[in-house]
Amino acid sequence: MPLDTMPQIGFGLWKVAPEDCEETVLEAIRAGYRHFDCAADYGNEAAVGKGLASAIAQGLVTRDDLWITSKLWNTFHAPEHVELACRKSLADLGLDHLDLYLIHFPIALEFVPIETRYPPEWIHDPDADSPAMQRAAVPLYKTWGAMEQLVEKSLVRQIGVCNYNSGLVHDLMSYARIAPSVLQIEAHPYLTQDKLVRLAGDYGIHVTAFSPLGALSYVELDMAGAGDSVLEESVVRGAAEVHEKTPAQIVLRWGIQRGTSIIPKTSKPERMRENLAITDFALSEDEMAAITALNANRRFNDPGVFTEAAFNSFHPIYD
Known about the structure:
8-stranded parallel β-sheet, 11 helices
């Protein structure tokens, strides 16, 4: 599919338990979602694949109705491992091609064979005396060259990157034969990333915002506190009253109205429908500006924090 057919509101599958995934995907398709954001590291692609196959078998959708994204994990950055990783995701998802394949992080880790551990996750050897990440000396341009070969082999339709900063985007655009279609980044009213979003637009790269509701995905991981919720902000709640929408719908509307795609996640069918019901109203310029002004550069998904806390390794990618 060409990029302009990617639905602006997608369904994120991070932290959806494998045992719940098949039914969650079916419910999401019934609710109207056609764009599903997957990744090898989520550990649930085989279950997602069962949900997609079931939906197609039931006549709810065809493959051509769907936009499926997946991501290359850090341990598969070496050029000889990129196609291996892609084909594993395709096999698990039960697909013959991906609509979009993204480099998950600009972090190269030592290869872990699929038969040894899958998904490989962050720690190289969990049984080591001091388990930690193990960096690999793989330049990003070599990984990107192998990503381009996936397009040439028709395994994927579009390629892109996640979690790149502006310097890496400039660098990528200096050597890419096939330009990235999408930059996926954390973005919400507490982390607007205006300069990075603008830069991507200057290069013709579409931006997808993950964690578009901010802290909600991170409280249970102890990466955010209950007081970090943007949904409690007075400007958000005031707009919700004016438009007769929920605070979450206001924040998601802000995300698509600024031109980014969003990939919210929920397991509740009523919330699935609610998150899609944001195209029948528009925020005023003043409302958009007030919500944007909430920016505090508050990043919840920061490898410079969580790799040290959880994986005995210090690996920042943002200054």
